[in-house]
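Is this the right way to post structure tokens for a design question? Let me know if I should format differently. Anyway, here goes:
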């Protein structure tokens, strides 16, 4: 059986009760197969000793120490034990929140195994997130230096899993072990045998056991290599198959990317006829390059009447790239329409096996290799062109407007459009703006999210079905089951990286319909402000055409970026105040919503929350992050009492969020304190300041996105990136690169280069680029190999 075919519900695993299985759904774990495919994101290697003195260089210390003494702090219920230890290299304190029982177990004078994350606080080295156990061997160590020679007794490699509320690391480890024992046998290989041989991979069966339960780190890595390769191969196979079906040609193998990021293709066999030349051309269209320039007169001339009305209405000139890209897409929409029409007319057209089993759309069903290209070649008999385009444009380059033009083109052909945004806030903002621009042209727009209430909703859905709505704007609710379109011809997906491949498929399915034996799909325009480096774009999106907009609207002044060290916030705040006094507005962004562990900062009240309810990882990460809620109070009451401040984050209800954003737009609010909910899309030209606290906590692309929220009007704008005192060297490099460059593509390349394995937080991780185990920055070479192997499989 294949792993993903193990459909037994996860509740069948021993140790998984109703509560836990409910929590697991948040990690998309429903079946045993899902659970076993929940691969560790990292390993805690306890096979090596790590001394206290090296705490800053490592994630975790793993050592043998002597207990010097016990100390206490706090009063009454809050009284907390501190165990002072020394491992021969340094002295440190174990802070035992809610673990007073350790007093009796870990006695002064004894020797212990210790592992945990340590940091310096109040001038001493501390950990509140540690494991400690008595050293079993009898050692009498009066000389602490003797400890240096001793190996900790618990030397194993422990998987570290991604968690969610209600699931701890220990639970996850235990239930996965149980699942392996109960169901983990007889798992089939999915990689063809030749390739297993070629790369000396381990069998799938073995890989599954080793990845969850490795004896050594080497074993874990070998398993990860096999599973990553399988994942990439399946992915490549699926998108290349799609690409083949769209273009009728299998792409060339890519040998390598040279140091400038240029592609070195394998030489194709001689080109024998005109069709081949055409095919090679269409294959290369996919490269991320700009389209031809077009003059304004030529552009205006090419517009449909509705589009002409819009261009007359907007108060500025389109950029060169906006015009080129619109022109290019108009052609595609027209072509699709004309072909469709032609088929409708030639009713007796001989139709091949187009879409005979919907095989164009089975890209996600990638399990089965082998039904190679030849089986589907008939698909080119009657082909209706559909646009499948990724529009990449740096933040602020004006993608929304481009999308509107393209919508108007589809509407000219009597089609409907769906305009999808990843967050409620952004969808609402789009809906309002689009309505403002298009209502007077007679275009009928409507807004739909999960929150639109039932009576209005039914009315809206009926209108949609009857073709009385031209553009429906909303969140992924646009594609939920009960939403039926009259004739969906174009789906626009804003901030595409936030959506996964599966969602893309669902959208296609919505608009797909059979007419005269021909299957029609809606055109799809995906937009992304996270520039994807060419090397990745070519391998990850070879089923899409890619357009790039590099020119910025001419009224823009580059944002000035200042790096501010933690402790010097006042300088930034003062600069912001000057801007506010001029009537401008500001954003403040924090990495967390609330600081659940703030009591830890205040020792007298420490210990109210049980750290047992959280995994070690969570304790560490939440306690270190600055929170929007807490800082909102500070900013509103102490720093900017004379201005109106407001707070938004993902836990505030959607309507409230929209209202706050409206008030920010209309100037009723001057300071908006937020989490990264405002990372995408939010557009307020009067905001001139962006303050990002703990900036080093964010990925580079994310910071670039956040910075892109300002500098959208004609005024000079500023971004203040406040970085932590204990920022790492590479953190400093990243900050400097951001200060120097405003080019999203350059930043994305740097981001990919600088990101260490397992460090995929930030935008690349989400959506289309999200893999279970493969990591596109770590596995770059493998990605290329998988692509070439998939080509081989398709042609074999
Ligand atoms: P993004 O590409 O980041 O999605 P938006 O579409 O939100 O950018 O556009 C940012 C702002 O720029 C909007 O206020 C929009 O009206 C404005 N804008 C778009 N195109 C132009 C242009 N050619 N000249 C001036 N302003 C423009
Ligand atoms: Mg946008």
């Amino acid at each position: 059986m294949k792993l993903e075919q193990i459909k037994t519900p996860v509740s069948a695993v021993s140790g998984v009760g109703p509560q836990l299985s409910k929590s697991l759904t948040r990690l998309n774990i429903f079946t045993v197969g899902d659970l076993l495919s929940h691969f560790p994101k990292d390993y805690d290697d306890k096979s090596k000793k790590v001394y206290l003195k090296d705490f800053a260089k490592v994630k975790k210390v793993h050592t043998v120490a002597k207990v010097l003494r016990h100390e206490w702090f706090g009063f009454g219920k809050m009284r907390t034990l501190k165990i002072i230890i020394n491992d021969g290299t340094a002295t440190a304190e174990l802070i035992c929140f809610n673990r007073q029982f350790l007093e009796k177990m870990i006695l002064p004078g004894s020797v212990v195994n210790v592992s945990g994350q340590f940091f310096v606080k109040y001038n001493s080295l501390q950990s509140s997130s540690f494991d400690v156990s008595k050293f079993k061997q009898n050692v009498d160590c009066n000389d602490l230096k003797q400890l240096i020679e001793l190996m900790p007794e618990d030397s194993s490699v422990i998987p570290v899993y991604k968690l969610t509320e209600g699931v701890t690391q220990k639970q996850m480890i235990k239930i996965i072990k149980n699942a392996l024992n109960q169901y983990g046998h007889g798992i089939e290989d999915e990689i063809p045998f030749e390739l297993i041989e070629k790369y000396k991979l381990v069998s799938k069966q073995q890989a599954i056991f080793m990845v969850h339960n490795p004896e050594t780190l080497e074993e874990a890595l070998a398993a990860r290599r096999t599973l990553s390769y399988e994942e990439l191969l399946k992915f490549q196979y699926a998108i290349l198959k799609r690409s083949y079906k769209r273009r009728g040609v299998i792409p060339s193998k890519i040998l390598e990317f040279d140091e400038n990021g240029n592609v070195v293709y394998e030489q194709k066999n001689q080109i024998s006829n005109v069709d081949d030349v055409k095919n090679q051309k269409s294959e290369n269209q996919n490269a991320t390059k700009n389209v031809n320039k077009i003059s304004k007169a030529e552009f205006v001339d090419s517009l449909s009447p509705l589009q002409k009305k819009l261009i007359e209405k907007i108060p500025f000139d389109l950029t060169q790239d906006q015009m080129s890209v619109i022109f290019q897409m108009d052609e595609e929409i027209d072509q699709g329409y004309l072909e469709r029409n032609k088929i409708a007319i030639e009713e007796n057209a001989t139709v091949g096996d187009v879409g005979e089993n919907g095989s164009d759309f089975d890209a996600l069903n990638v399990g089965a290799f082998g039904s190679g290209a030849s089986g589907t070649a008939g698909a080119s008999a009657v082909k209706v062109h559909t646009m499948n385009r990724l529009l990449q444009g740096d933040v602020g380059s004006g993608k929304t407007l481009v999308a509107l033009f393209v919508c108007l083109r589809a509407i000219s052909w009597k089609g409907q459009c769906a305009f999808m945004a990843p967050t409620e806030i952004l969808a609402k903002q789009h809906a309002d703006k689009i309505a403002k621009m298009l209502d007077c042209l007679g275009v009928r727009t409507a807004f739909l999210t999960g929150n639109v209430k039932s009576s209005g909703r039914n009315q809206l859905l009926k209108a949609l079905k009857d073709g009385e709505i031209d553009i429906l704007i909303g969140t992924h609710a646009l594609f939920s089951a009960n939403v039926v379109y009259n004739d969906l011809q174009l789906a626009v997906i804003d901030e595409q990286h936030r959506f996964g491949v599966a969602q893309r498929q669902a959208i296609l399915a919505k608009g797909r319909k059979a007419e005269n034996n021909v299957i029609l799909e809606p055109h799809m325009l995906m937009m992304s402000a996270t520039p994807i480096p060419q090397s990745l774009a070519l391998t990850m999106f070879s089923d899409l055409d890619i357009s790039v907009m590099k020119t910025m609207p001419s009224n823009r002044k580059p944002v000035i970026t200042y790096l501010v060290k933690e402790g010097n916030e006042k300088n930034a705040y003062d600069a912001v105040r000057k801007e506010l006094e001029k009537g401008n507005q500001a954003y403040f962004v924090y990495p967390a919503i609330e600081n659940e562990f703030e009591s830890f900062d205040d020792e007298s009240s420490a210990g109210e929350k049980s750290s047992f309810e959280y995994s070690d990882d969570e304790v560490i990460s939440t306690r270190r992050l600055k929170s929007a809620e807490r800082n909102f109070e500070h900013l509103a009451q102490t720093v900017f009492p004379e201005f109106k401040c407001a707070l938004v984050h993902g836990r505030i209800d959607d309507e409230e969020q929209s209202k706050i954003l409206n008030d920010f737009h209309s100037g009723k609010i001057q300071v908006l304190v937020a989490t990264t909910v405002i990372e995408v899309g939010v557009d307020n030209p009067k905001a001139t300041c962006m303050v990002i606290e703990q900036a080093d906590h964010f990925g580079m692309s994310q910071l670039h996105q956040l910075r892109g929220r300002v500098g959208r009007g004609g005024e000079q704008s500023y971004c203040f990136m406040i970085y932590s005192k204990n920022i790492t060297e590479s953190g400093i490099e990243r900050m400097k690169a951001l200060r120097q460059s405003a080019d999203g593509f350059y930043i994305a390349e740097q981001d990919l280069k600088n990101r260490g394995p397992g460090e995929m937080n930030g935008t690349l991780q989400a959506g289309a680029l999200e893999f279970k185990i493969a990591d596109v920055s770590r596995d770059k070479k493998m990605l290329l190999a998988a692509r070439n192997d998939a080509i081989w499989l398709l042609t074999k």
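Format looks fine. Someone answered above. Worth noting: Residues 493 and 504 are 9 Å apart (CA to CA). The chain has a mean pLDDT of 81.
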